[in-house]
Amino acid sequence: MARMVDISKKKVVRRTAVAEGSLELKPSTLRAIATNAVKKGDVISASKLAGIQAAKATSSILPLCHQIPLTSVEVDVSVSDSTLDARCSVAADYKTGVEMEALVGVAVALLNAWDMVKYLEKDAHGQYPRTRMSDVRVVSKKKGGR
Q1: What is the mean pLDDT of the chain?
Q2: CATH 3.30.70.640 applies to domain 13-143
Q3: Is residue 43 exposed (0-12), middle (13-18) or buried (19+ Cβ within 10 Å)?
Q4: Backbone phi, then psi, for 123, in 5-degree steps?
Q5: Catalytic residues
């Protein structure tokens, strides 16, 4: 049986986590993002907001995660030569870590971007032969300190 872990006896300490990931896109799609020429609007700004919103809603998405009162969420989205890259930094003063919030923030930022550019990525059959999310991972997590 699944259950949420009891953290009632743990001490409140500063917790931080940083996650990152990439979305592989066609060069023409990356140019459209960089020049703000995507039909749905500003992919970078919208993806940042989507990532922040998702990090705050992690316990609604992952049923065994605790509802953590986040003190900070920052999402950065940037265009590189072959990918759109996202990085999510999360902080809280709480009894359990915030790495899931950082991972969810990154994943949703990238999914939002994919949704906004999917019309540019589809092939003649409506498929996405080269579009893929990759390397979504926690790059750091800290407990204690400021």
Answers
A1: 96
A2: yes
A3: buried
A4: -90, -170
A5: 115
The number of beta carbons lying within 10 Å of the beta carbon of residue 37 is 11
| C-alpha torsion angle, residues 10, 13, 14, 18 (rounded to 10) | -20
CA 106 vs. chain centroid, Å, equals: 1
Backbone angles phi, psi at 59, to 5 degrees: -65, -20
Domain locations along the chain = 13-143
pLDDT tens digits, one per residue of 1-36: 899 999 999 999 999 999 999 999 999 999 999 999
Which residues, at least 6 apart from 134, have a Cβ–Cβ distance to it below 8 Å? 21, 22, 23, 24, 83
Q: Which residue has the higher pLDDT, 17 or 146?
A: 17
